[in-house]
Amino acid sequence: xxxxxxxxxxxxxxxxxxxxxxxxxxxxxxxxxxxxxxxxxxxxxxxxxxxxxxxxxxxxxxxxxxxxxxxxxxxxxxxxxxxxxxxxxxxxxxxxxxxxxxxxxxxxxxxxxxxxxxxxxxxxxxxxxxxxxxxxxxxxxxxxxxxxxxxxxxxxxxxxxxxxxxxxxxxxxxxxxxxxxxxxxxxxxxxxxxxxxxxxxxxxxxxxxxxxxxxxxxxxxxxxxxxxxxxxxxxxxxxxxxxxxxxxxxxxxxxxxxxxxxxxxxxxxxxxxxxxxxxxxxxxxxxxxxxxxxxxxxxxxxxxxxxxxxxxxxxxxxxxxxxxxxxxxxxxxxxxxxxxxxxxxxxxxxxxxxxxxxxxxxxxxxxxxxxxxxxxxxx
Length: 379
Hints:
Low-confidence stretches: none
Mean pLDDT: 83
Distance between the termini: 102 Å
Structural class: mainly alpha
Number of helices: 20
Shape: rod-shaped
């Protein structure tokens, strides 16, 4: 405003100077368009000052009108934003409180009335629709948000699709993300695990470790799950199974679930000796009942060396009912009836269970002690 006023004042002073140059005998003459106007010097100065004041006031009024318009628009915008924030707070409160049905209906009504909902409000509305199972409305809200092509929108969409079990669509949304983040890596891992794409899980877990997307224990659990999942693939060849064992880290190899899966994979591909050996090596330093049970199942009936090894484990685990039952089964398979009954009875004394009763019943049936066999099944 001040620069404009200064320019006007300078213009008038210049005009006054030019006019004063035509000053003659106390009279200032203005000629133009066939007319001539005479002013005294005092009147001319008064008119100049009056014009300056008039223009200044006019500019002030114009400036006030324009600024008032801006202020009114800013006020209306601020008021709208406050209403939107208040509405958003209420929506978030309902979402946290689990009142998704109320939130869904309110959001649906508000948006269908043609109100311009903010991105945040659309996100909350989409989440409420998702929790209520109204997937068509959810997809409509997400479609409006996707126009912004923001990474957080694609991530939100992917997370909801994962909840729905649509891992392929979730991966499609995640692949649109421009910059990989901790959240996107976690979501992609979840989608890949649903789809049992274990090769990609193992590749992505390395990225998760670099980004510190989850703690080491969580990464380890997912890696173990992926490797066990790989070993369950019947299409893998024996060399591929052996390569999985070589590539596995020390912590993975120390997991009983890995040892069990590896042993099963080796056994099903004809590598019986390797299948037994990996279990034996594990049980030298640790213990797992499931592995002992598996070892009994894969040991050959005529192999007394395997029986001796298991009996050696009994020295360290004398009161392990699972081990005693396993020994009973091994002795029965090798036609060592007396030892089998002793081990099974000892297991039953420590922990009477239907499984032990069944094994005893089978033993008595083989020994032609049918009454005792039926009695075990009646317990």
